[in-house]
Amino acid sequence: MRSNILVVGSLAYDDVQTPAEHRTDVLGGAASYFAIAARLYAPVRLVGVIGGRSGGSFRWLGRYDYAMNTAETINTDLGVFADWQPRVPESFADSEFVFLANIDPEIQLATLRSVRAPKAVALDTMNYWIDHKRDALLEVISHVDIVSVNESEARQLCDTISVPKAARDILARGPRAVVVKRGEYGSVLFTRSFSFWSPAFPFDEVTDPTGAGDSFAGGFLGHLAETGSVDDRALRRATLHGTVCASFAVERFSVDGIEAATPEDVAARYRLLQDLVRV
Amino acid sequence: MRSNILVVGSLAYDDVQTPAEHRTDVLGGAASYFAIAARLYAPVRLVGVIGGRSGGSFRWLGRYDYAMNTAETINTDLGVFADWQPRVPESFADSEFVFLANIDPEIQLATLRSVRAPKAVALDTMNYWIDHKRDALLEVISHVDIVSVNESEARQLCDTISVPKAARDILARGPRAVVVKRGEYGSVLFTRSFSFWSPAFPFDEVTDPTGAGDSFAGGFLGHLAETGSVDDRALRRATLHGTVCASFAVERFSVDGIEAATPEDVAARYRLLQDLVRV
Fold it and tell me: What is the pTM of this model?
């Protein structure tokens, strides 16, 4: 039977500029991408905040250059997100898989404490928290099962250029798996007993890289929840499902690509990824 | 029966500086790395030039920074290599697999014409020839079967940031396979009908990246010569063998790593690469 998934994170309106196009007021936010990906696999519970009387919704204005690798943040208007203290309702306290999207690590830890006995908890973070709340981040990392970071974050967090060393350093703090995302170069899953490499989906070009990491996490945890397992085989397959969901996210603007994807689309892209490495 | 392999390219003395170490007067040159890798698979014939009465051997002084990705050339002393016109002896004219290492594309083409009926010819090049002898390079590319380039060379040659587009552009000129090397991110083989993605060997750190590409080519053509085949399966496996030989090259200075490797070492690393992608 499918397990359920809880995500706690941002909901936002994005303004996104790429060399080819400029879109305003599109749906964004880590929890949006995650949830829309993960619902392809299992029921999703979402805790987030949107604007109302007390202020506006979180807004992000970002720009990608020709290489489409890292976003330049032009403006951030946190709105009601600034002082948000997520409360996980009692009816969500039995959640089995949990994704702590990129927010203040102190809030991640508080949130985690309101879930009783999750089978697996994954967390994402960003350079800002590594710089400004390092100790709190290391504390919450020691309480989760899976850490999902991109390559530069892994290096920054562990102060080494060597990604395998960084992964070992994170694993030594408690998590049983670290996924390092490397954009067009794919991703690598590290555990104490094995590593697993996933190619990226082989696009000529991507349309909008926003949300790739959160969609990846959605596919990853989605697969674990769908199978109810966190064994080695499930973790390997989850990495490929993460790649598949990220591929839907980046091929259209905003959440359009991942929203249009079906389980059949997922299965087809999963097979294509396997073909890429078959000898 | 094993086919034989001909390599035409540089033999050199290198001075190599890395953040950890500085070695002088070590064996280098593209043909050295290639031959020492390829002899693990099949008999190798080598055409190169060394110093004598008319001048000194080719010398290269290079430095790698902390990231160990691209070499900074501090000094090049071409010596007798400057005016070298390789002559392929009549006894080598029946060579079955041929590697045209990185030299002037006009010389590559002349060399190729002195081999009668090779089963497969592979070519490497560098940014200098893309800049200065583009037409000659495109001409020789149209006469070879396999093009081996790194990612930045592929982009520069085809004037696109998209590696898949660059690969298609090269394939459209005649070759049946393009291998794009991406350092620590592995490599991708492109043909008209499929792509194949190889992880890199997962080192914490590399000792000396010099010769990685030529050792890769040695393992790649070596496997083709050993099997006598250039079918799709052989090309996929050759890509993994290229990765394996590159891994030996970079883990020690100069040719020391690839020289010490045995067929058993090759088999063990080949299995490890397969484990990295097995679900």
Answer: 0.95
